[in-house]
Amino acid sequence: MSKRYLRHLVETGAVDGWDDPRMPTLCGLRRRGYTPSSIFRFVKNAGIAKANSLVDIEALEHCIRDELNMNAPRRMCVLDPVKVTVTNYPRNQIEFFEVANNPNDPEAGTRRVPFTRELYIERADFMENPVPKFFRLKPDGEVRLAGAYIVKCTGFVKNSDGSIKEIFCEADMETRNDMPKDGRKIKGTIHWVSESRNIKARVMQYDKLFTEANLMDLPEGKTYSDYLNPDSVKVFENALLEESLADAKPGDKFQFIRNGYYCKDTKNESTFNSVVGLRDTFKEEVGNA
């Protein structure tokens, strides 16, 4: 896109300024969490062509994902929380689990994550009527709470609109972060945060700004504004994060386990921007070529 089109996006309020994390500008990439080294690597890999050519955005995403996979600390963040009460866990007790900061970097050490009777998990990690091969939490089903106990769903209550209000579970108190003593297999692991020991934040989940890959080759009578993606940003206003993230500084980057890579916003307090997802489609496509 030319600067004229980009300026139109800014002036019409379609984006949040030149440094909007969806914008194809250096300041936009920087605010979203892309590092200089990932951009340099992308440019080097793309090379130089004499003819006009397109490079798939997945190639750039692959570069930053590769880098963050090795050095981004892991943290737990629940984007769409639903409450879980572990009914056989003592009230007012707090237990700390040592969880690895980065499995790819043993020198990154561990952190202490507080476990309490009341927790929050992702709403999507529970299904009342589970589909086949649903290995997360379901009635009478068991899952591993990441780094902590195995729990079994014993019941739930709903809101008046039919949505799940609260889930009740019992913990296998012998497991802690170990395997069950009887040797049974637990297929699912889900992330969680303590109800009383967390921080609240806004999480901005970004997608592509346009639905069309090549804006320089549009059908006659169409303009780039016809292809603005209405779902290019999704805002989670009430996300709950590990309390260790209270010390995160603007620009700090993390992997929110099972969700993707995120960066502390440099403009808005208590806001994290999505950098890139966990799945590397570019690597898969290259590997299958």
Task: Give structural notes.
- This protein is of the alpha+beta class and 289 residues long.
- The chain folds into two domains: 159 residues, Beta Barrel (Ribosomal Protein L25, Chain P); 123 residues, Beta Barrel (Ribosomal Protein L25, Chain P), CATH 2.40.240.10.
- The protein has five helices and 16 strands.
- The strands form three sheets. The chain has a seven-stranded mixed beta sheet. A seven-stranded mixed beta sheet has the order 10-7-8-9-3-6-11, with no helix packed on it.
- A hairpin with a 6-residue loop joins strand 15 and strand 16.
- The protein is elongated.
Number of domains: 2
Could you say which structural class the secondary elements and strand pairing correspond to? alpha+beta
Tell me the radius of gyration. Answer: 22 Å
Portion of residues in beta strands equals: 25-35%
Q: Tell me the series of helices and strands, N- to C-terminal.
A: HHHHEEEEEEEEEEEEEEEEH
Identify the overall geometry.
elongated
The CATH superfamily of the largest domain is Ribosomal Protein L25, Chain P
Enter the CATH topology name of the largest domain. Ribosomal Protein L25, Chain P
- Straight-line distance between termini: 29 Å
Fraction in helix = 10-25%
> What integer is the average pLDDT?
92
Number of helices: 5
**Uncertain regions spanning at least 5 consecutive residues:** none
Strand order of the largest sheet: 1-14-15-16-12-13-2
Provide the CATH top-level class of the largest domain. Mainly Beta
